[in-house]
């Protein structure tokens, strides 16, 4: 069994007094790829935001332990420094700071060390080429005027440059055409290795084609209701969530 990287136990959490996660349990080992599936409104994005420490959400019970440390008292930037990375469904536009400066500043904040410009730019250029991003985009303001696909590629660019321990990918493939999904999938595969892990929310399993999925979790009504190997993805693709909902109703 892989060494535990993320361990969530009996997590209860919500927003504005409404409970969304209702006793959720989840363990991700180092080097593993986990996928979370579930109908809209089941709590998937809430889970990602809570792991990352979004101040809008409140944890009322349970624990989140990352790399052996309880995250309860850590702010979002402190969690990023520990090695967490969240890719958003809808990346924000940030006028006034370029893509290059944003990534370089983030890398310095995480490592606590000054980033050497020439090696950094060399790697940035190489990563942008792999993601089929035009080099001039490095000098554009973060996501300003970018298409939806360009924003998603930019998220993967940040992932490759910042090299976190755990990538939380919240529908990074949503709204992308077939070619863009392929590029994003290849980028995630390039990031993943035996020393880091991925936790992926998706409705389009094409993003998983370049990855070896270790575990699949079905999230409904704030709880993990079914788990399995990658074969569970095929079951969901062919049968949807109806059989799981029926089974839950019969309990």
Describe the model.
The chain has helices at 44-52, 76-82, 99-111, 117-130, 148-162, 178-191, 231-239, 242-249, and strands at residues 4-15, 18-29, 33-37, 58-66, 69-70, 84-87, 94-98, 141-142, 166-170, 197-201, 215-220, 223-228. With 251 residues, it is an alpha/beta fold. The strands form 3 sheets. A 6-stranded mixed β-sheet has the order 6-9-10-3-11-12, sandwiched between helices. The protein has a 4-stranded antiparallel β-sheet with strand order 2-1-4-5, with helices on one face. Strand 4 and strand 5 form a beta hairpin. Helix 3 runs parallel beside helix 5 (148-162) and helix 5 (148-162) packs parallel to helix 6 (178-191). The model has no long low-confidence stretch (mean pLDDT 93).
Instruction: Name the overall outline.
Output: globular
Q: Give the proportion of residues in helices.
A: 25-40%
> If you average the pLDDT, what whole number results?
93
Main sheet summary: 6 strands, mixed
The spatial strand order of the largest sheet comes to 6-9-10-3-11-12
Order of helices and strands: EEEHEEHEEHHEHEHEEEHH
Return residue spans where pLDDT drops below 50 for at least 5 consecutive residues: none
Helix/strand class: alpha/beta
Radius of gyration: 18 Å
Specify the number of helices. Answer: 8
Would you count the extended β strands for me?
12
- The fraction of residues in strands falls at 25-35%
From the N-terminal CA to the C-terminal CA, the straight-line distance is: 31 Å
């Amino acid at each position: 069994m892989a060494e535990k990287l993320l361990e969530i136990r009996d997590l209860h959490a919500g927003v504005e007094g409404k409970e969304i996660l209702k006793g959720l349990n989840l363990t991700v080992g180092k080097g593993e790829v986990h996928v979370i599936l579930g109908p809209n409104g089941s709590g998937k994005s809430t889970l990602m935001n809570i792991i990352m420490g979004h101040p809008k959400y409140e944890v009322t019970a349970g624990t989140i332990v990352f790399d052996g440390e309880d995250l309860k008292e850590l702010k979002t930037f402190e969690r990023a420094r520990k090695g967490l990375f969240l890719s958003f469904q809808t990346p924000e536009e940030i006028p006034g700071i370029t893509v290059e400066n944003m990534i370089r500043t983030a890398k310095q904040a995480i490592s606590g060390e000054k980033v050497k410009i020439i090696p950094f730019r060399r790697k940035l250029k190489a990563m942008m080429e792999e993601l089929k991003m035009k080099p001039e985009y490095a000098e554009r303001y973060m996501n300003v005027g970018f298409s939806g696909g360009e924003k998603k590629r930019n998220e993967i660019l940040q992932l490759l440059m910042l090299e976190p321990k755990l990538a939380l990918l919240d529908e990074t493939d949503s709204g992308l055409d077939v070619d863009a999904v392929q590029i994003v999938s290849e980028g995630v595969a390039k990031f993943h290795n035996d020393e880091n892990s991925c936790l992926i929310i998706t409705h389009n399993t094409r993003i998983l084609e370049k990855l070896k999925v270790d575990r699949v979790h079905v999230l409904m009504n704030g709880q993990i209701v079914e788990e399995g190997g990658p074969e569970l993805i095929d079951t969901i693709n062919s049968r949807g969530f109806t059989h799981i909902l029926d089974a839950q109703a019969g309990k």
